[in-house]
Amino acid sequence: MYGDALWQEVEKSQLLRVLDMSWKDHLLSLDHLRHGVRLSAYAQRDPLMEYKREAFNLFHEMLGRMRETVTMILAKAEINPVVVEAFQQAMSATQQPMAQTLNFSAAQQPQKMQFSGPAKEESRGQGAFGGGNSGADNAGGNRAQRRALKKK
Fold this sequence. Notes:
Elements (H helix, E strand, L loop, with lengths): L3 H33 L10 H29 L5 H13 L4 H4 L18 H4 L19 H9 L1
Helix pairs in contact: 1-2
C-alpha cells in the first residue's frame, strides 16, 4: 500500500525507540537487583549466582515486553499520506549511485601521497626540543659517523 521501504523505516524506528526505553528500564532494574541481591547471602545462597540468574530472567522478560510493545504499536500504526510523499521524495533523492554522488569512477587511480617537512638546512643543528647541538652533530651522517668525526 505505502511501499516496503516506508514500512521498514517505520518498523525500524519504532523498534529502536522501544529498545531504547526498554534497555534503560532494564539497566535500572539491574541496579535495583544489585542492591537487593545482598540479602540472598542471609539465605545461604551465593549472591553472584543469584544476581546472574535474576538478571537472566529480567533480560528475557524485557525481550518479551519489547516484542509485545512493538507489535501493539505497529498494529495500531497509521501513516499520513503527506509523510508518504515526503518519504518518497527523500528516497528518490538518495537513490543516486554512490559512485556518481562521490564523482568517482573505477578508472581513476589513487594519487601518491606527498609529504612535506622542514628543509634539511632548517632541521640541522636543532635537537628534539629546538635547541642547538654541538658542532660535531652538524656534520650529518649516522651516529657512528658522527662519533668517528668527533674522535678525529
